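May I ask for a protein sequence together with how it folds?
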Amino acid sequence: MLQQVSSEHFQLLMKQHCPLHLPDGSQLPIEIEAVELRPQSRLPGNTRTPFNVALRSLEPTAFVDGLCALELPQLGRVDTVFVSREPPLGRDPTLGYFNIVFN
């Protein structure tokens, strides 16, 4: 299922609020902040252009990283998406900032 995910699925959700389903079964409200294509990272034989997705939590969270699930347009619920936390680096330190990499 992860091979079917494209940057366009996330582009449709840009600046929208949606739930991130955490490994413990809880939901964290997030916003898709950015989708960045990484064409220089494409592996031979791979038709999908690699991309990164930047997420921001809408409330404080202790979640650091793990396998999560998201609801994506046209695909429905996509499980086993690895989400990793990034440092706030000048942003609101009470919120969580996360990254998803699709190669």
Q: What stands out?
A: The mean pLDDT is 92. The chain has one helix and six strands. Helices lie at 7-11.
